[in-house]
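Schema walk-through. Below, the input block comes first and the output block second. Nothing else is stored per chain. Lengths vary across the set, and this one has 157 residues.
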Amino acid sequence: MSFAEIILRVGASIGGWLTFIGHALTLSVLRQAACDPASDELWRGTLLFGVLAIAGLLFVGRGLPWRSAIRWLALPALALALHAGWQIGAAFGSTTLDGASLCTWAGSTASDAAFVHAATATSLERIWPPFQLAVLAFGVVQAIRFWLGDPKAINAA
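--- output ---
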């Protein structure tokens, strides 16, 4: 294996971890964001970021042969994924199951509180929590596999 291939594999693994960590951090602080009930840009943006996080998680196994040097990135990824999953679990109950708008879960101002409580979830808002929980669960599985050095980790070849 050439030096360039080693650098590319380790770089892809680190980049994948950092992408997932960024996504989990975004989801962890999302409740503090200002929510506009008339717009779904916040939810569409985090869905796109979730797709990028999945793509990043597909590359983390590339650095498995050198995991002793980079496995420490799995710890913040695991911690942030668990914290974000706890936050998104509340959104799953109120939005997907009860049909309320995601703005009732996220931070909304008192001026639009009457509109927010009357709003119902759109189809995008109903699929948002299960999708994010699936991304976070995939990240947790990858973090555990990477930490343990499981050769079945995705793209470990």
